[in-house]
Design goal:
Length: 218
């Protein structure tokens, strides 16, 4: 009887780990047990370095608002994309990378086969309905041998997982509250993006999606 119930519970769950590419994994719900620890950490980071919309080198204001924590933070302005050890808004160092965020990312990287992940940067993105991220590559980090780990919270988003060329037709991958993506190695420089967020209200996060991405930048 117990075995039957377990088998039923297993059958009701979709596969926990989806492998998109040779070195790209979606760990479904991997962050869910940690959400209660992550939210106060995020709140503290955002109190020190609030979300702000930045300008691209091309002169466009991003629809996604961002902040950072850790030794290095990703920024953009008319002069270009770069990592900086200061919040350009305050001139102060970015808030420290909190413990639960760091531990979760290291555990997810290990789960996906990347031992010894040592992140020094965490970019926090906020999407409200209509916000999107156009197809791009992440290439401002120094060491492409370290993986990148991203955690999705709040409203669902449609992630675009592209190829090595901008012209490669991307695969659509839904990302839900608690999902964690890990990628690196041969998939490190793939083009990727996020379709415009749909209207909605998430029971825990409200009318937004927050994605934070941990990297080794320096
Ligand atoms: C790269 N963020 O901040 S998660 C970014 O949801 C960014 O906010 C998106 O792209 C977001 O630079 C996507 C990051 C992600 C996920 C899977 C990838 C980047 C990836 C797979 C291959 C290459
Ligand atoms: Fe990216």
């Amino acid at each position: 009887m117990k075995q039957d119930l377990l088998a039923e519970a297993d059958a009701a769950q979709p596969p926990r780990t989806e492998q998109l590419g040779a070195q790209t994994f979606v760990l479904r719900g991997f962050a869910l047990p940690q959400v209660d620890a992550l939210l106060p950490e995020l709140r503290a980071v955002l109190a020190a370095s609030p979300f702000r919309r930045m300008v691209t080198p091309g002169g466009f204001t991003m629809s996604v608002a961002l902040s950072n924590c850790g030794a290095l933070g990703w920024t953009t302005d008319l002069a270009g994309y770069r990592y900086s050890d200061r919040d350009p808004h305050s001139g102060a160092p970015w808030p420290m990378l909190p413990e639960a965020m760091r531990t979760l990312a290291i555990a997810a990287a290990a789960e996906a086969g990347f031992a010894d992940f040592d992140p020094d940067a965490c970019l926090v993105n906020r999407y409200v309905p209509g916000a999107k991220m156009s197809l791009h590559q992440d290439r401002n980090e120094r060491d492409y041998s370290q993986p990148v780990v991203s955690v999705s919270l709040g409203l669902p988003a449609m992630f675009l997982w592209g190829g090595q060329q901008r012209s490669d037709r991307p695969q659509r991958v839904p990302l839900l509250h608690g999902d964690v993506m890990v990628w690196g190695g041969v998939d490190r420089l793939r083009f990727h993006g996020v379709l415009a967020l749909k209207e909605g209200r998430h029971p825990v996060m409200g009318p937004q999606r927050i994605n934070f991405t941990l990297r080794r930048a320096g």
